[in-house]
């Protein structure tokens, strides 16, 4: 079998049918679609069971999270290649055809995509290729000049815009992480990769939606998880590409991730005292110990300085004031 499309699903009753149908309508031969219903409670399972199609296999499992669902999908996959689709996204009919037509002998395909905005508009997020080429195949080492832009713009940080060669997948998705499991999986896979194909835009439709307010999405574990992810993938990145620009991009994405978690803390239900206490605890992790002060955003440099100099109260004040000013705009 050529391809397995893996769709992890949890409480996606309103979008899952469109997602699955778009996968089944792909203009390629010899593929299957595997849906892992991760303990949904909103009727998603019934929607999946109502779709009668021999290429679709549905597994209903106990809720253990998206990584567990994807790992189950990988164990069941029969395709030579695998791709992942999120249950609230969808594919244009020729998305996977474009990816396979560009594949050649590559070990990995990385694609641009389209953002579906809440107002119904579409925004293309293209990978910028020279001379307006639609695709380009490179040896992994030759990615170095363009990797910083790709990484800063999140093309390497997710799994749903990629084709993976199944025989090269050596590790599962980490099930102990609440975020960043995509990034860990991708860069573990990169250790096996020799060649990469970049596709300007394959037509994967990523739904941009307000899936939760800053208040609702805060988790204390996210901060230490992000630090763990960075210290795992940074050595893999620098082993492949040694330039200062690559290291700076890696540090930039890491800092942006931690800043986002700090913002969610400020908007959470925790009291000011509880927030300052958490910041003090996070400073003990020394998350920026190996990060240089060369970020191109002033606010990021301030945050890094506070961590490096152990100034939790100053950091709290900076974050509090910054978020208040944003709210007034």
Question: If you consult CATH, what is the topology of the largest domain?
Answer: Spore Coat Polysaccharide Biosynthesis Protein SpsA, Chain A
Question: What's the architecture of the largest domain in CATH terms?
Answer: Alpha-Beta Complex
How many structural units, i.e. domains?
Answer: 2
Largest sheet: 10 strands, mixed
- Strand coverage percent: 15-25%
End-to-end distance, in Å? 53 Å
Mean pLDDT reading: 92
**From the helix content, strand content and strand pairing, which structural class follows?**
alpha/beta
The overall strand count is 10
**Shape designation:** globular
Helix/strand layout:
Elements: E1 3-9, H1 16-24, E2 31-38, H2 44-49, E3 56-61, H3 66-76, E4 81-84, E5 90-91, H4 95-103, E6 108-116, E7 122-125, E8 135-139, H5 147-152, E9 162-165, H6 181-190, E10 195-207, H7 221-240, H8 244-266, H9 272-284, H10 298-308, H11 312-328
Parallel strand pairs: 1-2, 1-4, 2-3, 6-10
Antiparallel strand pairs: 4-9, 5-10, 6-7, 6-9, 8-10
Helix pairs in contact: 6-7, 7-8, 9-11, 10-11
List keywords for this structure.
single chain; 329 residues; 41% helix; Spore Coat Polysaccharide Biosynthesis Protein SpsA, Chain A; ten-stranded mixed sheet; 2 domains
Description:
With about 325 residues, the chain is an alpha/beta fold. It has two domains: about 200 residues, Spore Coat Polysaccharide Biosynthesis Protein SpsA, Chain A (Alpha-Beta Complex), CATH 3.90.550; about 110 residues, no CATH class. It is built from eleven helices and ten strands. Strands 1, 2, 3, 4, 5, 6, 7, 8, 9 and 10 form a ten-stranded mixed β-sheet that branches. Helix 6 runs parallel beside helix 7, helix 9 packs across helix 11 and helix 10 runs antiparallel to helix 11. The longest helix has 23 residues. The chain is globular. The relative contact order is 0.11. About 0% of the residues have low confidence.
